[in-house]
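Hey,

Quick one before I head out. I ran the complex with protoporphyrin IX containing FE overnight. Inputs first:
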Amino acid sequence: MTEPLVVAGRDWANDADIDSPEYNAHFEEVTSILAAKCPVARSEVGRGYWIASGYETVKACSQSSDPFGSPGGVQPNADPDHFVSIPQELNPPHQTRWRQLLADDFTPRSVRKYEAIAIEETNLLIDEFIDEGNCEFIADFAAQLPGRTFFPAYLGTPLDDMPRLREAVLQAMCDPVIADRQKGYAKLSAYLEEHLHRREQQPPRGDMVDKILVGVPDNDGNPASFADKVAVVTNFTVGGLGTTTYALATMWYHLATHPEQLKRVIEQPEIHKQVVEENFRAYPGVPATGRTLTRDYELAGRTIPEGDMIMLNWASMCLDPGHFKDPLEFDFDRHITVNPAFGTGAHRCAGAHLARMNIATALRVWLDRIPEFTIKPGTQPVFTAGIVREMYDFYLEFPAGGK
Ligand code: HEM
């Protein structure tokens, strides 16, 4: 037991719950308080878990797989037989070999190759609703764009399969019944397994899928199994879609509710990159992911036993007042060198540049056609939280036909 830290009737130091309605409703407040006052919190939910918070504490925990191991997964209280994501659930050096194999496909230069697809898909999506003068931004735009770029560009899967892939990803990440998230993984990996089998029979295209089909050896020198290859494609798919959807949603939500900042974004396209970067920080879409202790370990005066899960609270790095001045302010002029919204350490996000490109491109194209937009009166988007955040029912209004 440590000093209680009560927000919304819950003691976040000793009885935290990142899947609770209180966490969702008071996300910024809880996160900021944990960052400033509670380097290690405890949750008694299910088998129990710990939460490491604050810029320096989380960064230090993320630097080493001893004792903060990745095998064991990222989700607290997951089924021990849960679908294992690769590279997420491997430790270096095996994890590093997968990352190195695919690194070239996700550099700023590589992702720029797909800008034309992002422009075209943004325009096609806008065409569908611009004459109506309104849209439900998530279903009509944000949930579609990331997959429309990723699936054809990286995996070569047919566009018609997008809706069911997206549904499976959502279930894997956010099903309110945690045990049912495995069903989402099962649907997705079954689809991707079939896709990899098909691709094995086809001539190489020199893309990411070809590299995954070759794979990397494990630490004993054994070649990658087919199941591991499916786990890699699944990890990139799950990791990339819902997260980018949420970042698009918060970017548009912020601009729709801050007309003076929207005006500045329209007038100064040269600041788009830093605005997109600040959006990742101010609205962290992956609040926390877990590590499993490989031995007993003392952290900030609390002993965490071997085998327990500790959540690395990335959101608390983003909102730590000790690192970012006035962290709850959305500051267009903030200079962010390393954005903790993408994590720190060996598992730092593999797709950050792709997310940046997608959102900056969508913003440019959208503002050119629909510079004025507001939240539809009488509606309010719904937020959810857990290890990832999501937004639903986000209705926008704008002049029919655009500008
Ligand atoms: C706004 C968008 C995104 C956010 C906020 C985000 C956030 C994160 C975070 C915080 C981690 C670190 C997890 C950890 O250390 O436990 C991570 C890992 C990862 N991300 Fe992202 N991500 C985004 C977009 C993407 C995209 C577009 C892709 C790929 C298409 C992607 C693929 C991955 C993969 C494969 C990992 C695991 C890396 C490893 O374990 O080595 N992410 N992401």
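Residues 74, 87-88, 95, 99, 150, 235-236, 239-240, 243-244, 247, 280, 285-286, 289, 314, 341-343, 347-351, 354-355 surround protoporphyrin IX containing FE (CB under 6 Å).

Talk tomorrow,
K.
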